[in-house]
């Protein structure tokens, strides 16, 4: 009986010693004036850290949805909320006016969790086998979008829809498919050949999204 108790205690102690929580620093508030890397910002001098580094109020207001996609995303990533730096988490506010859409996009560096606060949102993603996962979400519903998979959100009702989006990274990254294809100087001929769209449609989309060539 004694051996059965001692052995688990030994492993628990070993795990505690090797755990990330044993690191000397409790946090690494981002120094936004310093260099950054894929790992995040360098740490702010601990002597200059205050409680305000761990509080962010930028998600309180409804976003401006008077734009092409009738949507607004207000991020609270490390660049806006330095206290998140190095913690592997971040959040954003999503507002979708009636008819609003967040086009197909990916986050290459983090999983996403969407929580609907009001309204109706039709959301979905496509896996690498091209299987579609689609759901109409209402207030209180939560949906996850795995790292790197194309996904979207559309207002599914006649009123403003709002959600809080959480990520498993303080810098999840963002790549919107429509902008990748039509908001740059990639030659139209190449876009046409790789998307099977005709010349008129490609040029129309480039014009709408600010692309050239």
UniProtKB/TrEMBL annotation:
It comes from Stephania cephalantha. Residues 57-203 form the Cupin type-1 domain. Oxalate binds at residues 107, 112. It is found in: Secreted, Extracellular space, Apoplast. GO terms for cellular component: apoplast. Pfam families: Cupin_1. Transmembrane segments: none annotated. One of its GO terms (molecular function) is manganese ion binding. InterPro entries: Cupin_1 (IPR006045), Germin (IPR001929), Germin_Mn-BS (IPR019780), RmlC-like_jellyroll (IPR014710), RmlC_Cupin_sf (IPR011051). This is Germin-like protein. Mn(2+) binds at residues 105, 107, 112, 151. It comes from the Eukaryota. Belongs to the germin family. Residues 1-24 form the signal peptide. The keyword Secreted applies. Keywords: Apoplast, Disulfide bond, Manganese, Metal-binding, Secreted, Signal.
